[in-house]
């Protein structure tokens, strides 16, 4: 019984570590997309100002 309980505990810890890794991966993706979005916004602002200048 003790060994079965231990294996189920390790299974739970494996799932939780997998979950945190997924969260970290998502957070990384979000940061990357936000950075790309910021760069795109800057590009649009630059082009818009160039258009108004011309």
UniProtKB/TrEMBL annotation:
Residues 1-24 are annotated as: Disordered. It comes from the Eukaryota. InterPro entries: Nav/unc-53. Residues 7-21 have a biased composition (Low complexity). GO terms for biological process: neurogenesis. PANTHER family: PROTEIN SICKIE (PTHR12784:SF28), STEERIN (PTHR12784). This is Uncharacterized protein. It comes from Ixodes scapularis.
